[in-house]
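Annotated sample (chain length 140).
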Amino acid sequence: MNLISCSRSDTDSQLKAVVDSFATHYYNWQFKQALPYCTPESESWLRFAATNVQQSDVDILRAQDEGASYQINDIKFGLGDSTAIVSLTVSHYLRMDTVGNAGQFVNKADFQLPVVCRNGRWMVHLTALPYSQNGRPTAK
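Output written by the structure step:
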């Protein structure tokens, strides 16, 4: 019987590559492109985010010279090394607002992304939309 696992030797690079791809797409509102880096259970959250995009949000995003960027600050592995929490700081991203209101740009905010290893592959595991308590809208 072959068991596929996420060994420590290749975990960091594979996990960081998944978070890189997910964060690049998700924080630039490319929700469909973020999907391959998530668990199947996460799809409903990405669909929810996509259905709340308004034309005013699209216009704001298209008017930007550069997209959101991020930096991984820390990775904390859970028991058994099949789960982890990735702490990252996201810069210059459009924070989704309530329905009917355009999103607002945030200079920097910290997020924690839960990730899981299934069948030897790391994936972001959303149980809610990523949320930051410290992100403040950019003053206009």
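Annotation: The longest helix spans residues 8-26.
Annotation: The chain has one domain: 8-124.
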